[in-house]
Amino acid sequence: MICRNLSRNSKQYIAQIEERERKRTGINSLKVKFNSVFGYYIEISKSNLHHAPQEYERKQTLVNAERFTTPELKEYEAKVLDAQEKIVEIERRLFTELRTAIAAEARRIRQTSLALAEVDVLASLAFIAQNRGYCRPQFSEKPIETSLDKSSQNPRSWKSLLAAIPCWSKLELTGSNDRLCRMISI
Question: 167-176 — which CB contacts under 8 Å span 24+ positions?
Answer without folding.
Answer: 167/135, 167/137, 167/138, 168/137
